[in-house]
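In response to a reviewer's request, we include the raw inputs and outputs for one of the modeled complexes. The two entities were modeled together in a single run.
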Amino acid sequence: MYDIIIIGAGSAGISAYKQAVKHTDNILIINHGPWDTTCARVGCMPSKLLISSANRLHDAQTLENVGIQANLKVDTSNVMSRVRKYRDHFTSAVLEDVNSWKDKHKINGIASFIDKSTIQVNNQTYQAKSFILAVGSEPRRNEEWEKIGNRLLTSDTIFELEQLPQSIAVIGSGSIATELAEALYHLGVEVTIFSRSSHIAIATSPKIQSLIQENFNQKLNIHFETTPTSLTKEKEWVCVKYKNRENQNEEEIKVEYVLNATGRTSLLSSLKLENIESSFSDIKNLPIDNSTKQLKNYPIFIVGDAYTTTPVQHEASYEGKISVNNCLSYPNVNDKKTYPPLSIVFSSPEIAVVGKSYKQLKDAEHKFTVGFASYTDQGRATVLGKNIGGIEVYFDSTTQELLGAEIYVTEAEHLAHLLAWSLSEKANLKQLLSKPYYHPTLEEGLRTSLRDAYSQLKSSD
Amino acid sequence: MYDIIIIGAGSAGISAYKQAVKHTDNILIINHGPWDTTCARVGCMPSKLLISSANRLHDAQTLENVGIQANLKVDTSNVMSRVRKYRDHFTSAVLEDVNSWKDKHKINGIASFIDKSTIQVNNQTYQAKSFILAVGSEPRRNEEWEKIGNRLLTSDTIFELEQLPQSIAVIGSGSIATELAEALYHLGVEVTIFSRSSHIAIATSPKIQSLIQENFNQKLNIHFETTPTSLTKEKEWVCVKYKNRENQNEEEIKVEYVLNATGRTSLLSSLKLENIESSFSDIKNLPIDNSTKQLKNYPIFIVGDAYTTTPVQHEASYEGKISVNNCLSYPNVNDKKTYPPLSIVFSSPEIAVVGKSYKQLKDAEHKFTVGFASYTDQGRATVLGKNIGGIEVYFDSTTQELLGAEIYVTEAEHLAHLLAWSLSEKANLKQLLSKPYYHPTLEEGLRTSLRDAYSQLKSSD
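The model returned the following structure tokens for the whole complex.
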């Protein structure tokens, strides 16, 4: 009987393994498919590589924003190969790490539960005192759309394109859809977005969302509340039919590719959790503790994006690590997630939500004060020629404690870190205003939003 | 008798006025020259405008770093007019503010002390219970060099150039010299630096300094430990003679302009402080409290860059504000500067020093541990094609409290804010390691440096 069996060797599973092996040699990690991570292979890294080329090109094409007239001719034919070159650099670093692990710890195969302490892999059974389930997720599939064959892309396949497409329809407007659609647009691809919702990415605040849409509408064709009615392959093109929301007409566009970015599906169903408890067949409603990721009262922890509302890499790694501590101390399960929520979309400008979102606070009927700062006249943003968007900060109206923020400004990722770190210190408004803000920086815009909150709270005293 | 007389209406004086006027109408602010700030007119803002054009152009000229072949023809003839256009936008915002102040509060003229509570301006005397001296500084002058007339520039005059020069010799390698020299180089100007020292800008750590020099040496001609022996005007050129440090030969270069960026001189001497106490004629050694900026035990506070080792705008504003509180509570002088030191040079990559510098810790024989992370293979920096430099973090070897950091990486300003805010929380290493670091960000490189410090402290346990 093993001390711990880890199922899945992605960001969460690898983190769990590295933590576990510090404490016990009596462990097993089982993985199906490549022994690298979604993040490095098809997620964070290749998307950020594409975005980095896109942003640099967009900046070069808008040199007039900083007083430079330019005649620019570009050849983007190496962009996709650069994505893969560095993607391979990142995945091989992961694989090198995995290759250094003991062979006896690793099994290739699909695992499924027989009972609460027994799993089966490749027709063999293994038992453990505790389990860490880190099986991850995959892009949501749509069989109807798959009829167009390799013209239907997902985030799993798009980075394999030899060349940038001429045109693409992106279905979805979540984080992945938003990042890829905008990056492709900046790289010269004709992009049309179809979104079931009327939102772009993660911002829930009406004001921040409207700033995002204002900017996106200037660049991209977006059909909100519209899903294609059919995709058909016609010679070199894919015909995308849809009902125009405004005039209710059936319309169509022809594109080279379609990207299905409608979300991701957990791979938990492969584990046959119903063999532990029959009710666990409903994998969307598993009794999982949000802060320990424990499954009911079992020594079983479900970590990473197999079961989460915040599929981000740093949380997956963190969950992998603390779940090991909880496996080893079971039945005491004390190690809890303490990170404040932090989500970033690497659009241009970037979108970030830190702590509680506007919608979460509204839904909870929390009495909160919103401080806002526009960046259209923010000093440093103006200097950079990137004076777009704004920031909202949320404070408890009584205690003045920081609750969260939604951000849509250039380099939002850094302001988001400042606020996330402050949340972890339970900082209040006065403390935040007493921090140094160097001049001239984007951080000064954050202070403007804090001062806005302060003036409201003061006047309501 | 006024409650407070403020002398100087720059960043510190304006901040002081705004704080003072909240409490008393019985104030006076006296200013010589323009009623805007060094920062907005000839400092932070125009330099950052120039740098922003320079960085954008440099990024466009290195598109191959992100997989894009480009043929780029640029016309930079509007760069200087853009600098002035936005500079004027920023100065007019300051002036608009000043114009809204009561006329009876403002006097144009040069002030000097007659005794500790009396000053003279335009042959008239004024008395006050307390004084805030915010007279600022000016570029250091050199009469010998001034013989080349308008071909000798300072940071006061360089932004008035109609066009970028073809070539320039920059004398000095401090923050201002470094920022301007590199920006001009990126804008296509032929730049040669002459530096009395063997250092570039503010980094005191041998390792960080060597990373900076490695990068600068690839771009610019730098003559360390060399001051020009003569500057002479020859028709359209300035001939700069100097002794070559390596072969001891007399050599010369011809340039269009020379920038004297050898430092700044306090304007305190105009105030005749010796009429308060004769020893105050030695303005370099005034008895000023570092945290309150009080002059000896007088109700006199010297704020901003008239007397400081850290001439940065956010500290000037801060000092202006707290000095008002101390004027009003005098003889109780309790309001102290609590900001941790934070200095940023907006080079590319940026240089930042936070808290105690390497040299300060060495000089104080502090027992400290240095954590280092190179950014040459840092994930996000690699993705951005900006994988240059590194970061050092300093921790007390006993308490593991954060002491400071020196940084030379892209977007260092943001990591510097994170660390400065952490210093103000007196964070220790363990607390810093428990913060969220989103993936993939430059902040993860900071964590790498923290882990390096951790492994050293752990192994020395």
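As requested, we also summarize the result in words. The two ends of chain B are 63 Å apart (CA to CA). The first helix of chain B runs from residue 11 to 20.
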